[in-house]
Structure formats: C-alpha cells, structure tokens
Amino acid sequence: MKAVVRSNSNITSNCHYHVVWCPKYRRKVLTSPIDERLKVLIHECVEKWGQEFVEVEVMPAHIHLLVGCDPQFGIHRLVKFVKGATAHQLRAEFPELKKKLPSLWTNSYYIGTTGGVTIETVRRYVESQKGK
User: Fold this and answer.
1) Half-sphere exposure of residue 12, counting CA atoms within 13 Å on the CB side?
2) Average pLDDT over the chain, rounded to whole?
3) Whole-model pTM above 0.85?
4) Which residues have a Cβ under 8 Å from the Cβ of 28 and sit 6 or more positions away?
5) Amino acid 3: pLDDT
6) Is the predicted pLDDT of residue 1 greater than 60, yes or no?
7) From 3.90.1330.10, 1.10.10.10, 3.30.70.1290, 3.40.50.300, which CATH number describes the 14-131 domain?
8) Which of 7, 48, 63, 66 is 20 to 30 A away from residue 42, measured at CA?
C-alpha cells in the first residue's frame, strides 16, 4: 500500500492508528448480522468525517480498526464520533442490544500508532484476528 501523505495550508502528515474497543462488559454481542452492519457503519462514519479508512475486523467481543487520521482533526474525536454513531444506529436497528446492554460501548479504548511497522503489517494483523 502506498503511503498517504495528507497536507493542508500548514501541516503535512502521514498518521495511521490501530484502534481497539469492546462492548460494555465485553459481552459477545457482535455476531451476525450485527457484525457486518457494524463494518459498514464504521466505514461510512470514517469517510463522512474525511478520514482514511484502511481496515476493520469485528470479533464477537471487540473491534479492530485501522485508520488514517489528520492530527488536527484528532483520533480521539474520530473514535468518539464512530462509537457514538455506531451505538445509536445499531441499537435502533437491533433492539435486542438494548435488552442486553445499558449502553453499547465501554468508555475506554486502545489506540496504537503504526509508526514502528508498515501499514501492510498492521493490516495483515487486523485481518488475521478473525481466525482467533
């Protein structure tokens, strides 16, 4: 994958992040068809905010997202928007989630930068998580 360098009038950057978060109480609620819908919603949300969607993998109890994000926009803001939008939409489309959880996502999440390895290495890692 070719490196994507973003620039505007005062900053040039190439920032990619590996983000992991899970449902409240780490409940295994992200199963079919919820998992496939969640992938679509995450992709749409990242694109809506003008950031770079690279890869996503949904396991029953957590999500791995690989994303490029403008440092002026802020990865914390993008994660907040993605978690908020997906929780709202999934709970509207799948009422059983309301019965199982008071809120869909935990407040916490993990973010790691991909600076130590190539973006392809992290992409392969995220893709390989489904088999575990």
Assistant:
1) 3
2) 91
3) yes
4) 60, 61
5) 63
6) no
7) 3.30.70.1290
8) 7
